[in-house]
Specification:
Blueprint lengths: L1 E3 L9 E3 L65 H7 L3 H15 L2 H13 L7 H13 L3 H13 L7 H13 L3 H13 L7 H13 L3 H13 L7 H13 L3 H13 L7 H13 L3 H13 L7 H13 L5 H6 L5 H18 L2
Helix pairs in contact: 1-2, 2-3, 3-4, 4-5, 5-6, 6-7, 7-8, 8-9, 9-10, 10-11, 11-12, 12-13, 13-14, 14-16
Length: about 350
């Protein structure tokens, strides 16, 4: 079962059944291939300058307010968004002051969304979900799709008021209709889960495609699982591989692992073992236990890279610590010399001490 996590609020995950892609094993060609100083803010809408954006990462930590900096100078270019510029540089109090003027004097929806953002995350001002809710609602009523998404996430989480999933669904639908990829992705998960909304796999796939086409790595990965399993869409391994490649290029670790496996097995894409092993190494260093397990197999057997049992034991031990043990690897590595085994175990302890929290 593969967990697809919502963007923008920690609400557990939606499970994708029927042979999760992450459970695939790398198979040699003679066999049949089986089938996330300034802390990162919670996922929230970004008030965009005239230039385009990048969809935000998975929420990890709660940001803290920073000291009030000196105001930003007036730029020569009148089209520069001073509010967003201050926000990007971490000058949150300046961004707040500038946004408040624009919101009150010009009824600027983007400035209202920024105020909601700052209040919701305690940036430049004391965190206040009620005020955040109020500013997001004003911006949402004025037609800002990012405010609609943010307000929907607050409604789902019960921040700034009672939990209201019906309202959240309507807001997500409106935001998605206006082209917000995070809203489309989260709405797709609700249709997939079948609890808040009746399950509709076809509609879920349509929404994922909308978000994937807009460049959302999470949606690209999720839609790839749909194409691989034939969930809500006709089964198509080539489309699945292309989506996995796009998501992996955006550093989606799950996609890196699955695209590596597709490359290794030639599933929906020409077989490329060196590229597959390189992706496994990258994902293993990003703490993917599945990639660590698969890389250990490659290194232990020499099926795709020179045999290196010391390195194989390192990654095997690290993967076991994360619950991805493999008895076959225990057998393959059983004949290691005491010296090599000690080296592999020491490397594993060092990695775990530096990277596993």
């Amino acid at each position: 079962m593969k967990c697809l996590r919502p963007i923008g609020v920690a609400l557990g995950c939606t499970m994708l059944a029927s042979g999760a892609m992450a459970q695939l094993s790398i198979t040699p060609p003679a066999q049949t291939p089986p089938p996330a100083k300034k802390e990162a803010p919670k996922e929230k809408p970004k008030v965009h300058a005239p230039a385009a954006k990048k969809p935000a990462p998975k929420p990890t930590a709660t940001p803290t307010a920073t000291p009030t900096p000196s105001p930003t100078p007036t730029p020569d270019d009148p089209n520069v968004d001073l509010v967003y510029g201050a926000y990007q540089r971490g000058m949150y109090k300046t961004a707040f002051d500038l946004a408040m003027v624009r919101a009150q004097n010009n009824n600027d929806a983007k400035a209202m969304t920024m105020l909601g953002e700052l209040y919701a995350n305690g940036l430049g001002v004391k965190r206040d979900y009620v005020k955040a809710d109020d500013w997001y609602k004003r911006a949402s009523d004025a037609g800002d799709r990012e405010a609609m998404f943010a307000l929907a996430m607050m409604r789902i989480a019960g921040r700034g008021g009672a939990v209201d999933k019906d309202s959240a669904v309507k807001l997500l639908a409106s935001s998605a209709k206006l082209g917000e990829p995070k809203a489309a992705y989260n709405l797709a998960l609700l249709y997939l889960d079948g609890q808040t909304l009746p399950q509709d796999l076809k509609r879920s796939a349509e929404l994922l495609r909308m978000a994937a086409d807009a460049g959302s790595p999470e949606a690209q990965y999720a839609l790839a699982t749909f194409y691989k399993e034939g969930t809500g869409v006709p089964k198509d391994l080539e489309k699945a591989a292309r989506l996995l490649q796009a998501a992996s290029l955006a550093d989606n670790v799950d996609a890196e692992v699955e695209y590596a496996i597709a490359l290794y097995n030639g599933a929906g894409t020409p077989r490329n073992v060196p590229a597959a092993v390189a992706l496994l190494r990258k994902a293993a260093r990003q703490n993917s236990a599945i990639a660590q397990n698969r890389l250990a197999h490659v290194l232990a057997t020499g099926a795709g890279a020179p045999v290196d049992k010391v390195e194989a034991l390192k990654w095997h031990t690290v993967a076991k610590t994360a619950g991805k043990g493999d008895p076959d690897l225990d057998d393959i590595l059983a004949d290691m010399s005491p010296e090599d085994r000690a080296k592999g175990e020491a490397a594993a302890r060092k990695w775990i001490g530096n990277n596993v929290k």
